[in-house]
Amino acid sequence: MTLTKINKLDAINSILSSIGQAPIIKDRLLNPTDPQIVMIENIFHSAVWDVLLEEWHFNTEKHVEFQPQHLTSGYVAPAGGVPSTGTQIHLRRDILRIDVSDDDINRQYDIMIRGGEDTTVRHPFLYDKVNHTDLWTHSIHCDCVYKAVFDFDPAHGAGPALQDRRIPIPEVFKRYIILRASTRAATQLTNNTSLIQALAQQEILTRAACMEYESNQTDASFFGFGHNSNYKSYRPYQAMLRR
Question: What is the DSSP letter of 112?
Answer without folding.
Answer: E
